[in-house]
Amino acid sequence: MATSTAHLTVTEMETSPEKWERFELYRGIPIEMTYTKPLHAKILSILTYFLVDWLRNQGGKGEVYGGEAGVRLSEDIRYCFDLAWSKGPLIENEIPKKSLDLMIEIISEGNDMDLMMQKVDDYLHYGATQVWLVFPSRKCIQIFYTDKTSRTFTQEETISGGDFMKGLELSIKELFPV
């Protein structure tokens, strides 16, 4: 939910962190984050497990980050993400100033899809190679690429990491609980 139409900056938000801790900043407009339901948390946990397993047991490289961590993409864009993967480690006590290589958002009923698509565009513009939107209600994942194309993977399909995430194989049906 937007709180006002005035243009706000990340710097202004940082002067009162307790006031703005539950807000993202969409091109200058503060949007309060909604609390998620157990299904969202469950899918986040399962997806985190698969990515960490890929890193530890299947030859994956890099780091997985999650839990509503933040990115500050510009002076008027500050987002929290559900899950992300980076080819290399991040500075642990700093909020990244660019997107990680893979940005993942789990879509809940409270999400505004226009804002989510803006977030996808911003993630790609600020350095992400792929953005995954996970749709629990439809049991699918839509992957957005830097060339402005996307592909939706359904329950019968498997996401293959290809050259981007060598060795990753994610069966969609294993991600979603019955």
The residue-averaged pLDDT reads 90
CATH architecture assignment: Alpha-Beta Complex
CATH topology-level fold name: tt1808, chain A
User: In sequence order, what are the helices and strands, one letter per element?
Assistant: HHEEHEEEHEEEEEH
- What's the CATH C level? Alpha Beta
Low-pLDDT residue intervals, each spanning 5 or more residues:
none
Q: Total domains, how many?
A: 1
- For the CA atoms, what is the radius of gyration? 16 Å
User: How would the global form be characterised?
Assistant: globular
- What's the β-strand tally? 10
State the helicity in percent bands.
Answer: 25-40%
Strand ordering within the main sheet: 3-4-5-6-7-8
Question: What composes the largest sheet?
Answer: 6 strands, mixed
DSSP helical segment count = 5
CATH homologous superfamily caption: tt1808, chain A
Spatial separation of the terminal alpha carbons: 31 Å
Oligomer: single chain
Give a short synopsis of this structure:
Helix content is 26%, strand content 32%. The protein has 178 residues and is α+β, with helices and mostly antiparallel strands. The chain has a single domain (35-69, 81-175), classed as tt1808, chain A (Alpha-Beta Complex).
